[in-house]
Amino acid sequence: MRRSAAGGAELLKRAQARGLARDDMDGNDLFALISALAWLADQPPLVPRADHLFDIISDAILRRRTDGVPEN
Questions:
Q1: What is the pLDDT of residues 16-30, one digit of tens each?
Q2: Computed from CA positions of residues 8, 14, 20, 22, in that sequence, does the dihedral angle turn out positive or negative?
Q3: DSSP assignment, residue 45?
Q4: Handedness of CA 24, 13, 35, 37 (dihedral sign)
Q5: What does the DSSP 8-state code read for residue 48?
Q6: Which of 31, 52, 63, 71 reaches 20 to 30 Å from 12, CA-CA?
């Protein structure tokens, strides 16, 4: 695993241990989602929606309180 992917996997594990991230995904899943986001951001028609797409992906990864604010 590349160093950046390994770092992301470690951060994911920490977030999962604190109950902040889904526990049904691993570092490979995280890397795939972030890679997809990076690819989408390079597509001219999607650049204006980059923030929206980031929100969708982060909502798929992070557990949120009922008020929509990520737990700390």
A1: 999 999 999 999 999
A2: positive
A3: G
A4: positive
A5: G
A6: 52
